[in-house]
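Case study 2.
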Amino acid sequence: MTSHLTILGWHNVESTWCFPVSGSGVAGLEGQLRRLRRVATVVPLERALDALRAGEPLPPRAVALCWDDGYRDNLELAVPVLERLELPATFFLVPGLLSGTERAWWEVAGWAFARSGRDAVEWRGERYPTRGAAGRTAYGRASDRLRVMTAAGRAVALEELVDALAPEGTPGDGRLFLDWDGARELVRRGFSVGSHTMRHVTLAQETPEDQVEDLRRSRELLQRELDVPIRTVAYPFGQADAVSRETEHAAEQAGYAHGLTTEFGWNGPATPAAHGRRIMLDPDRGFVATGLSRVTGRLRRLRGAG
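Prediction:
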């Protein structure tokens, strides 16, 4: 037995405007999961986090799996693979996206760059090319700027960016995500769910009071609609500029037992409950490219640690 937990996370399975996938994402994901099943012990996320907090041992090479945002292909493509391999997983959901009252700004921006009618645009004092690899890099730069804005400021900035890019067609971003019926299907099929905030805001950019309110509303709505306890939150983006001490305190105030960042690393008994670490992966990339080789190498070294 051991006292360490590796948490692996994904977003999508197949291509979206924000997360392009080369080849078959579902085949890549299945290959990743089959390899993990050979070298690790896949455990339910929340049960493992509870055990760490209580000082209880975990199985050797313990790994937990999760998905963020509630993309529709999580249910349609990832879940059948998980069921075939008999692996538990947790899905972190955004009530605003489930209800259709919020839009995934990162997907809207990705569409606007991909379908821009212009070769380059000026936006907020910087020039952004739109074609080819340079356009993809420019989208990343624009997303980084949007990510660290308040929700209110981002809405204005995104509208300006889309107007400048003058994209063709419609993004269809709403079709990328689950609705409440899809979320209930995840629960019905035996998978765990958690909160990914109410509106997918960058929490640390909001006031402490707004952070508590957002996290509280998300937890309460998910519990009411899905009839399951919501005890864990995965902070959107999860980097240092998205998760502050106030954010972690807000999660505790809102009633969460666990909070997860995207800080690369492993979790042990001393890991703060509101600051868990995760390793985020792409479904179509090899283990070396995603950093998963570091994970599987470490898991092999732990084979004799139990």
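Residues 105-165 form one domain.
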